[in-house]
Structure formats: C-alpha cells, structure tokens
Amino acid sequence: MDALLSEFSGHVREVHNEVACGHGEIVRGANHVLGYAAMPAHKFPDVPPKNTVVSLQDIQRLLEAKGLHRLWTRIAADPPHKPFASDGCSLFVNEIAKINIYPACFFHDLKYWSGYPNSTPAERLARFIADAELMTDLASLGVDFFIAETVFRGVRTGGGPISLPFSWGFGRV
Asked: Which of 69, 126, 133, 168 has its CA 20 to 30 A from that of 158?
C-alpha cells in the first residue's frame, strides 16, 4: 500500500509539473488567478481503431511511447487472459468540441483491462489513479476542465466494482 501511495504522490508531482511547466498557462488577474488555460496538443502515440485486438507487443510499444513503463511492467509480469481491445470512451463520446479524446480513453481502457477485479485497497487506489490520469489527459488535450471532471465522476461511478464489460479488471474476468 505504501508503494502505491508513493506512486500516487509521484503521479501528482508529474501532473503538477506538466501543467505548471509546459502544457498550459495560468491566467492572472490583478490580485488573483482567474483560471487555467489549457494548451492543446498533448501528444499521444497513434492508437489502433476502436474494437481492434491489440497484441502484447503493440501494447508494449504504445505504453513505452506514452511513458507508461510501470503499467507495462505490471502487464508483462501477469498478462490478463482476455485479449485487449478498447471500446473507446465507454458510454460516452469519443470527440468533444472537435477534440479527439479516444487516445486518452484507449490508455484508460488499458489500465482497466490490466487491473485485478478484487477490491483490495491497492487495487482501489490503482483504479483511482487511472481515473485521475484520464481526467488530466482530457484536460491536457484541451477539453474543458468541467467536462474532464464530469468524465472522472462518470468513470468513478460506472467503472467498478460492479461487473460490466468495461469494469476494472475486465481483462481478467
């Protein structure tokens, strides 16, 4: 559990550094911050189309290109028995205001596919981190923060612990 808390803390620092140092700008008023203006063009590797079965070799390539080395280590150590295919942004649209959000949903699906459906504190934390990363990925793509937070709340509600085709650990059930 301590390792996951440390990992979460690291993710928070990485997201803070990304937002503070490169993907956006803080809009300041005379005496206070008026808001944060996201700067689109967050880069994602090209991902396969929806519902395409993706090989472990391609998963490794995509995760390394996105910098998700810990996720690849987790998958390589114990690959889910079901093949991976992303359904896109489950029960949601794949484009918002002409912004393609499918790549963010693809990587979120990979995290859900590789999770373990048991409800341990470590798995609940891993799922929370995956959902928070989806929210920040959407914001970094240029999606309005309110919409990104709404998506976060949706995946927190619909992603588990119930057993749906897109619930946490769907590659292992």
From this structure: 69
Tens-place pLDDT, residues 89-99: 988 888 898 99
Cβ atoms 141, 118 nearer than 8 A: no
CA 168-126-93 angle, 5° bins: 50
Q: Which two tokens stand for residue 168?
A: 């946490």
Residues in the chain: 173
Cα(83)–Cα(30) distance, rounded to whole angstroms? 54
At residue 139, does pLDDT exceed 50?
Answer: yes
Q: Hey, what amino acid is at 92?
A: F
From the list 56, 65, 50, the residue with the least C-alpha distance to 101 is 50
For the stretch 84-97, what's the b/e string if a residue is b when 16 or more beta carbons lie within 10 angstroms of its beta carbon?
bbbebbbeeebebe
